[in-house]
Structure formats: structure tokens, C-alpha cells
Design a protein that fits this description.
Layout: E1 9-13, H1 18-24, H2 31-37, H3 44-63, E2 72-79, E3 82-94, E4 97-107, H4 116-135, E5 139-147, H5 151-159, E6 163-167, E7 174-182
Parallel strand pairs: 4-5
Antiparallel strand pairs: 1-2, 2-3, 3-4, 5-7, 6-7
Helix pairs in contact: 2-3
Length: about 180
């Protein structure tokens, strides 16, 4: 049997046929299981927040309705005919600056911890560079939001040059990350 990282995979734009697969795609733990296990008085507030955050992630994925037209773009990673990853972002040109908001990088729970997140971020960065060349902008600004408890995502962003720029004011566990660079146009 092949290990997950050895399977052949392909990136393609999200399309109408991906809608059904997105309804069952899971990149976060099912929140309702955590709600049942909640113990009163012992980290109750944190568990409740984590459950809500995970349900928001899963709900956002289930609400995705490809295909998208610019400025929003969605790509899916398919391995062995199964949707394994989702990349969703938006582009905006502001003068000579290309502003990119990375909304979601999601890897299916069964395929996590085998380098697909890194490959997904590499694919995202190559698409942003390609877009910057096409638009001939002088500067690229990429921003995203990550849960403070998600150390794997934070480490991945740090390896790609992102820096932690603060917290989201109305969410105690969400931090903002940014990468600013000159375009190679």
C-alpha cells in the first residue's frame, strides 16, 4: 500500500463538480464530538470556543460554491480521485500593489502530517507570483488569519517568511499573519 505522500496528485481550479465533495471534506475535528465531552468548570470556555472555531471552519468549507471568478479563486488538490486539499484566496489590485487575502488552506484530516500543507502553500505562492507578473505590480502583500492554538500552521507560515502581526480584536485566539515583498515583475 502506498503512503499518502507517494500518491499521485494534481491541482486544478475548483469547479461545480467539487460541490458534493466539499460537503464531506474535513480538515478540522468534528465540533459536536467535543461538545459532548465538555466538562463543566474545567476549561469549559476554551473548549466551547475551539468547538465554535472548528464548526466555523467546517461550515465555511461546506458553504464554498465553486467555480469562482476573479478576484476570488479556489483550487483543489485531488489524490487518487479524492479531494484532499482546498486552497481559497482573493486578489485585489490597489495601484501598484497586489493585495492577497489567503482565506483557507485545508488538508483532509486523513492526509495531514505528510507535507501536503507545505505543497499547498508552495502552489499558492507560485500562483501569486504568476499573478504579480501578469499585472506588473511593484509590491505584493499577503495576509491571513490563523488560530493561535494551531502551531503547525504557524510554523509553516514562518518557514515561508510570514510574520505574526497581531491579533484579531474580537476573537481572542485568532492572530493575523502577513508577508510583504517586492514583485519580481
Amino acid at each position: 500500500m502506498q503512503r499518502p505522500e507517494q500518491l499521485e496528485s494534481e491541482w486544478r481550479e475548483g469547479s461545480y463538480v467539487d460541490r458534493f465533495a466539499l460537503q464531506y471534506f474535513e480538515c478540522a475535528e468534528q465540533p459536536f464530538r467535543r461538545l459532548k465531552k465538555r466538562l463543566p468548570g474545567r476549561g469549559d470556555e476554551l473548549q466551547r470556543y475551539e468547538s465554535v472555531a472548528k464548526s466555523l471552519v467546517q461550515g465555511a468549507i461546506r458553504d464554498l460554491r465553486p467555480p469562482y471568478r476573479r478576484p476570488k479563486q479556489m483550487y483543489v488538490l485531488v489524490r487518487a480521485s479524492v479531494l484532499t486539499g482546498v486552497l481559497y484566496y482573493a486578489l485585489r489590485e490597489a495601484g501598484s500593489v497586489l493585495q492577497v487575502t489567503l482565506h483557507l488552506i485545508g488538508i483532509d484530516r486523513s492526509a495531514q502530517q505528510c507535507g501536503l500543507g507545505r505543497r499547498c502553500l508552495e502552489e499558492f505562492m507560485s500562483k501569486v507570483k504568476q499573478e504579480a507578473r501578469l499585472k506588473a505590480v511593484s509590491r505584493v502583500e499577503i495576509s491571513t488569519v490563523v488560530n493561535q492554538k494551531n502551531s503547525a500552521s504557524q510554523a509553516l507560515l514562518t518557514r515561508f517568511g510570514f510574520t505574526h502581526t497581531g491579533r484579531v480584536s474580537d476573537h481572542p485566539y485568532l492572530g493575523t499573519w502577513a508577508l510583504v515583498g517586492e514583485s519580481a515583475a
